[in-house]
Structure formats: C-alpha cells, structure tokens
Write a structure and sequence with these properties.
The complex is a heterodimer.
Chain A lengths: L8 E4 L5 E6 L11 E6 L6 E4 L13 E6 L2 E6 L8 E8 L5 E3 L3 E5 L1
Parallel strand pairs in A: 1-9
Antiparallel strand pairs in A: 2-6, 3-4, 3-7, 5-6, 7-8, 7-9
Chain B lengths: L2 E5 L2 E3 L5 E8 L8 E6 L5 E7 L6 E3 L7 E6 L4 E6 L8 E8 L7 E4 L3 E5 L2
Parallel strand pairs in B: 2-11
Antiparallel strand pairs in B: 1-3, 3-8, 4-5, 4-9, 5-6, 7-8, 9-10, 9-11
The chains are: A mainly beta, B mainly beta.
C-alpha cells in the first residue's frame, strides 16, 4: 500500500487560508468517506483534527475543515494562526481493511 | 480522561525481539478497536497493525506481516505488539491509537509513544 500523496510544505501569513491536498486511489480515499486528518507538533503525538472527511472532534476550532472530491481529500485552515504551524497527515481506510497515511505536509506560518 | 501509555521500547540488535505494551485507562477498553502506528526518525506516520475489540479481526501492514503480532488483554486494559526479526528499518517511535468509532472514521486518542531502536 503506497502512502497517500501530500505536498511537502504549505505556507501562509496569519489570517490567510491554506489548503492541503491528499491524493489516493479508488481503493482508499476515493472508495470510502473514511478520511481523517492529524496535526503533529514537534516531539508530540498526533492529534485528530478531522474525521470522516469533514467532521471535527469536540475542541477542534472551526477554522479547520475537510472535504473530498474523487480520489483527493483536502484540509483547509482558515484564519491561519501561529499555533497552526505543525505537520499535518491525512489517513484513509483501505479496501484491504488496513489504513494508509499521507506523506505529510509541513505548514509554516510566515 | 482517556489515557494511553506505551512502554517496552529500547535498543535491540538486528534479528532481535521486543514486546511493546500500551496501558489504557479512562474508557471501556474492551469496546474499542486499537492500533499501532509508527514514525521513523524525521519521517511520516506509518500504520502498523489493528485489532478489533474482541480480537476477532487482526490486520497488519505488509512491512511487518509475519514478524509482528498484535494482541490485547481486555481484563488488563492492555494492548501489545510482539516484534520479532527486527530490522534497522523498524527503528521508530511506536504509538498506540484508539479507533474512536465502530466504523473506521479515525484514531481519536494517541499515546505519547515509545522509541524502538534497532542497531548493532
């Protein structure tokens, strides 16, 4: 199972919006609405930010939103803040009943 | 409060074995599927294995199939990963993560991780 494809880095100024893409195949992202997104600060454990493509867990700011079209899922951060600077990973359930993560995207707040 | 605490990591020689544990608290452990996810130094996340609440369904990544064994003890609220025939490429921080829903919607809680280093 190959990793889902994400851009290596995305940057934006405070207050701006950025979008991170996550491209898979019809056997994972395109086949199920089981895409999730995780935020990871250096030296910390990942934190769930979005589940089931577009749902936010309790406590996650509504600046974070998710969507999906075909084999590509996206995470949008609106009103970018300094504390949003972190690595972000997408993940999808697969047709083999396994999971696959994305390659990861480093978000930099300029 | 949900807590997942991994232990058992350390330095092991290539070809050696190690058993990781994950102690769960703050929720009904026996009701949730659990997973192991690893992260090599400076690299991305890699899903390793999953086990259903009653251990009926177990899955592995191709990279560890035949070498790693996931198990759980619901009476002890614990998850395990037996790692055999370890290779240098298994060097990583290993996280246990809870699948938060009956459907595979995402991993809602993660432990702090335990570092496994495979080196001679």
């Amino acid at each position: 199972q190959s990793a889902l494809t994400q851009p290596a880095s995305v940057s934006g100024s405070p207050g701006q919006s950025i979008t991170i893409s996550c491209t898979g195949t019809s056997s994972d992202v395109g086949g199920y609405n089981y895409v999730s997104w995780y935020q990871q600060h250096p030296g910390k454990a990942p934190k769930l930010m979005i589940y089931e493509v577009s749902n936010r867990p309790s406590g996650v700011p509504d600046r974070f939103s998710g969507s999906k079209s075909g084999n590509t899922a996206s995470l949008t951060i609106s009103g970018l803040q300094a504390e949003d600077e972190a690595d972000y990973y997408c993940s999808s359930y697969t047709s083999s009943s396994t999971y696959v993560f994305g390659t990861g995207t480093k978000v930099t707040v300029l | 409060e949900v807590q997942l605490v991994e232990s058992g990591g350390g330095l092991v020689k290539p070809g050696g074995s190690l058993r990781l544990s994950c102690a769960a608290s703050g929720f009904t452990f026996s009701s949730y599927s659990m997973n192991w996810v690893r992260q090599a130094p400076g690299k991305g996340l890699e899903w390793v294995s999953s086990i259903s609440s009653s251990s009926s369904y177990i899955y592995y990544a191709d990279s560890v199939k035949g070498r790693f064994t996931i198990s759980r003890d619901n009476a002890k609220n614990s998850l395990y990963l037996q790692m055999n025939s370890l290779r240098a490429e298994d060097t990583a921080v290993y996280y246990c993560a809870r699948k938060g829903w009956e459907l595979p919607l995402g991993f809602d809680y993660w432990g702090q991780g335990t570092l496994v280093t495979v080196s001679s």
